[in-house]
Design brief:
Order of helices and strands: EHEHEE
Strand content: 35-45%
Oligomer: single chain
Structural class: alpha+beta
Number of helices: 2
Radius of gyration: 12 Å
Strand order of the largest sheet: 1-2-4-3
Length: 82
């Protein structure tokens, strides 16, 4: 099983490098590389959970597990459908 971890907590605050922009740029390559699972760590204030789920569904992934790992920090484990 191929697993990719994306840590979006420490991305600079510029508009072209916001975590939402970063994830939308990373997901196409992650999906094309055939990863079965993606672990995404992000700040609650940066990305709404439902928005991230929508991005993932566009690339045939679904949120299997969502866990608060510390104050304001979320770990989402997404798996490839099928």
């Amino acid at each position: 099983m191929k697993v990719k971890e994306l840590d979006l907590r420490y991305i600079s605050a510029g508009c072209t490098s916001h975590p939402i922009i970063k994830i939308s740029n990373l997901l196409p390559s992650v999906a094309s590389e055939g990863f079965d699972e993606i672990k995404i760590i992000f700040r609650e204030e940066d990305i709404p959970e439902n928005a991230l789920k929508l991005f993932l569904s566009k690339y045939n992934y679904f949120a299997e597990k969502v866990e608060k790992i510390s104050e304001g920090i979320i770990l989402m484990i997404a798996r490839k459908r099928g």
